[in-house]
């Protein structure tokens, strides 16, 4: 019987990057751009955060498995945040504005997880967002 207070076992990241593949500096920089483009999307209105990862995915899907997997992960996260944002706006409207601070939750999640992901891929490690709807496999 396992101890309920013990830390969870680390999850094995199931991405499409082969074990023998080591990303070069260009791959790491492009993956970093894919993850940070969501933060740029916040500045541009919050609805265009998925454009950067989508462009990188389409451009590098056959060239670099690391960039492809990280761009897909970032794209899925941006779509997840877009859905979450729509839900938060609906909750705010239904509460007649009482729950207005909830609309900032997707923005905070984008900044926090976007920076964590960028730091991870900068070092050449694949990153997987903890709460992500994976529409693109």
UniProtKB/TrEMBL annotation:
Biased composition range(s): Pro residues: 1-10
UniProt cross-references to Pfam families, sorted A to Z: MamF_MmsF
UniProt cross-references to InterPro entries, sorted A to Z: MamF_MmsF
Stretches the record annotates as Disordered: 1-20
Keyword Nucleotide-binding: no
Listed transmembrane segments: 32-58, 74-94, 100-121
Membrane topology: Multi-pass membrane protein
Keywords: Membrane, Transmembrane, Transmembrane helix
Name of the protein this chain belongs to: Chloroplast import component protein (Tic20)
Primary location group: membrane
Subcellular compartments: Membrane
């Amino acid at each position: 019987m396992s101890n309920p207070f013990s830390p969870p076992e680390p999850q094995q990241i199931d991405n499409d990057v082969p074990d023998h593949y080591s990303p070069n500096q260009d791959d790491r920089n492009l993956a970093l751009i894919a993850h940070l483009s969501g933060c740029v999307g916040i500045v541009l209105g919050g609805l265009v955060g998925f454009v950067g990862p989508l462009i990188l995915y389409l451009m590098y899907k056959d060239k670099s498995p690391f960039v492809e997997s990280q761009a897909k992960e970032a794209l899925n996260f941006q779509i997840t945040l877009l859905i979450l944002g729509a839900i938060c706006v609906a909750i705010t409207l239904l509460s007649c504005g009482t729950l207005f601070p909830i609309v900032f939750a997707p923005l905070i999640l984008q900044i926090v997880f976007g920076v964590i992901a960028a730091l991870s891929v900068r070092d050449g490690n694949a990153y997987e967002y903890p709460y992500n709807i994976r529409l693109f496999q």
